[in-house]
Amino acid sequence: MAKVNRLSEADHALVSAAVSEAERGTDGEIVTIVTDVSDAYHDAALHWAIGIMFLALALFAVFPEKIIALLTWLASGWEHEFTLGEILPVIFVLLALKFLAVRYILAWTPLRLALTPRATKARRVRRRAIQYFKVGAESRTMKRTGVLIYLSMREHMAEIVADEAVHRAVAPEAWGDAMAALIDRVRDGHPGAGMAAAVAEVGKILAAHFPKDHEDPNELPDRLIEL
């Protein structure tokens, strides 16, 4: 996916116009949110550091002569019958150094994201999308017809979350075209166009299930929210 740091004013205008147009034919309300990243994933760095530390401990157990060689080198090459009390502190220090080194290296966000399992990122993106939906869209329309289109850039993932009435009327797989339109354009480096295309597809679905009642007010903002 091409790297895009922030959406332009033109992107914001494009998405906002797409939302306004989509809502002309439906009582549904569409909210769009784009964020850079959905989680810090510090726990993933911790898990890697612990895993590397235990791997090193296992290697010390399998190849104890390496520790003896290190102690001999520290003793300036003098042969010596090392006791357990002399060996264990060295092992603990080496394990601590490995743990701290991995934690320090994984403080670099791109590497931390790259080493975080995709399933973990998918769960965090979904969780964050639901959190934003609960705050910004859920039960905020009279007919419970709010839909959130959420894009998390660094994870290269998106979610569509629907309010109660929409969830009952629309099967989850119905959002497939909207997701495909979004991801295809974002992958090409055009997140604004991707969001606008997804909005258009979601608008078609909402119009089919919740056609426009001209007395229905515009209850949620049409503008793209970038976090």
What does it look like?
This protein has helices at residues 9-22, 42-62, 64-74, 84-105, 109-114, 118-136, 164-169, 176-187, 191-209, and strands at residues 29-35, 146-152, 157-162, 224-226. By secondary structure, it is an alpha/beta fold. It has 2 domains: 9-39 and 117-226, Diaminopimelate Epimerase, Chain A, domain 1 (Roll), CATH 3.10.310; 42-113, no CATH class. A hairpin with a 4-residue loop joins strand 2 (146-152) and strand 3 (157-162). Helix 2 (42-62) runs antiparallel to helix 4 (84-105). It is elongated. It starts with 8 loop residues before the first helix and ends with a strand. Residues 1-5 have low confidence and may be disordered.
Q: Short summary of the structure?
A:
The protein is of the alpha/beta class. It is built from 9 helices and 4 strands; from the N terminus they run H-E-H-H-H-H-H-E-E-H-H-H-E.
The CATH class label of the largest domain is: Alpha Beta
As a percent range, the share of helical residues equals 55-70%
Structural class call reads: alpha/beta
Computed CA radius of gyration, to the nearest angstrom = 26 Å
Tell me the CATH architecture of the largest domain: Roll
Query: What is the general shape?
Result: elongated
pLDDT below 50 for ≥5 consecutive residues: which ranges? 1-5
Number of strands: 4
Our estimate of the beta-strand percent is 5-15%
> Order of SSEs, N→C?
HEHHHHHEEHHHE
Task: Briefly note the CATH topology name of the largest domain.
Answer: Diaminopimelate Epimerase, Chain A, domain 1
Strands, helices and their partners?
Blueprint: H1 9-22, E1 29-35, H2 42-62, H3 64-74, H4 84-105, H5 109-114, H6 118-136, E2 146-152, E3 157-162, H7 164-169, H8 176-187, H9 191-209, E4 224-226
Parallel strand pairs: 1-2, 1-4
Antiparallel strand pairs: 2-3
